[in-house]
Design a protein that fits this description.
With 360 residues, this protein is of the alpha/beta class. The chain folds into two domains: 248 residues, 3-Layer(aba) Sandwich (QueA-like); 86 residues, Thrombin, subunit H (Beta Barrel). Helices cover 19% and strands 27% of the residues. It is built from seven helices and 17 strands. The protein has a nine-stranded mixed sheet. Helix 6 packs across helix 7. It is globular, with a radius of gyration of 21 Å. The N terminus is likely disordered.
Length: 360
């Protein structure tokens, strides 16, 4: 029998997922997706609607949200010298003053240092290719075009949301609103925090009535979160670094729940990664501003979070590995088989799972 500590092989996170269960679009209302609730202490599994999640918590519990804001990172341009079409995904801004970005380019094989890429037809924005980083990675610099206003506003005006390839469609108008949480504030993410997409304003108001506290962290999510590791042994995987900020205000809210033996529920793997990146030996959350490359996989000693909300993820996903570490491998893989049998929807626009470490 496979044990908890053995689950560090990439192959163990493969399973047969019917393509029809991958959600291409969100539910009509954010909080009306399905919710599977798993209690790791008892092994009990319940099936609810997401809006009922508040009934699993009480006064003094805390939800930790990621308030990162997704920018329209996918740009369509063309190579200046040949007019060949080029797709660019903006990964992170390296130097705001010099307009330098780390990007992914498709097709990359014909884009070399010194080439220019043009975006837009009227008052186009031009970028110089400065360096190669890896097979499809490039460093580019956007040149001034003489237009009034922020170049970033012009750039984002040309871009579209970089929705995951699993959706098997081009970005649409609906993604502008729905590939973004209602509490998004700090711009910098390429990928939306999927678990946070389920929360509506009505649901946040219900939290207030019950007395469930809110804490906000900022972790700008990159493409590495949804890409399968390229190593067989997960212990050898090196996750991408992502900017993280945890305010003192959030630590006070979280640590109050900790002291009172109340639930601290991470809303999404990004929030889980954030709080477990800056916790002391007593399990108390500490303020932080910097970068984290924490990769959570079994076995992992969680010091702060006692509950986790996460979506149903695709095979080989690092997000599934983190959820497995939180719930236990066998329990979550059994739950996934149950989800498939019962028609749960997978992916960023799919249904959700609540994992409770205890029944406090």
């Amino acid at each position: 029998m496979t044990t908890y500590s053995d689950n560090i092989k990439l192959s163990q996170y493969n399973f047969s997922l019917p393509s029809g269960l991958i959600a291409k679009y969100p539910t009509e209302n954010r909080d009306e997706s399905r919710l599977m609730v798993i209690n790791t202490s008892t092994g009990d599994i319940k099936h609810l609607q997401f809006k009922d999640i508040v009934n699993c918590f009480t006064d003094g519990d805390t939800f930790v949200f990621n308030n990162t804001k997704v920018y329209p990172a996918k740009l369509q341009g063309y190579k200046e010298s040949t007019s060949a079409p080029v797709e660019v995904i903006l990964i992170r801004e390296l130097d705001p003053e010099k307009r330098v970005w780390d990007v992914i380019i498709e097709p990359a094989r014909k884009i070399r240092i010194g080439n220019k890429i043009v975006f837009g037809d009227c008052n186009p924005i031009v970028a110089d290719v400065l360096d190669n980083t890896y097979s499809k990675g490039r460093i580019i610099r956007f040149l001034p075009n003489g237009c009034k206003g922020s170049y970033k506003q012009q750039l984002f005006g040309l871009g579209k949301m970089s929705i995951p390839a699993m959706l098997n469609r081009v970005p649409e108008q609906i993604d502008i609103e729905r590939f973004q949480t209602i509490f998004a504030q700090e711009e910098g993410a390429v990928i939306a925090p999927g678990a946070g997409l389920h929360f509506s304003r009505e649901l946040l108001k219900k939290m207030d009535v019950i007395g469930i506290e809110k804490g906000f962290i900022t972790l700008h999510i990159g493409l590495g979160n949804i890409q399968a590791p390229k190593v067989f042994d997960l212990a050898k995987h090196r996750a991408d670094s992502e900017p993280l900020k945890i305010s003192e205000k959030t630590t006070i809210v979280v640590n109050k729940s900790k002291h009172n033996n109340k639930h601290i529920c991470a809303i999404g793997i990004s929030s889980l990664k954030a709080i477990e990146s800056s916790v002391n030996t007593q399990g108390l959350l500490m303020p932080f501003e910097g970068w984290t490359n924490k990769f959570i996989y079994p076995p992992f000693n969680f010091k702060c979070a006692t509950a986790l909300v996460t979506n149903f993820h695709l095979p080989f996903s690092p997000l599934l590995m983190a959820a497995s570490a939180f719930s236990g491998y066998n329990l979550i893989m059994d739950a996934y088989q149950m989800a498939i049998k019962n028609g749960y929807r997978f992916g960023v626009y799919g249904d959700a799972m609540l994992i409770l470490k205890s029944s406090r």
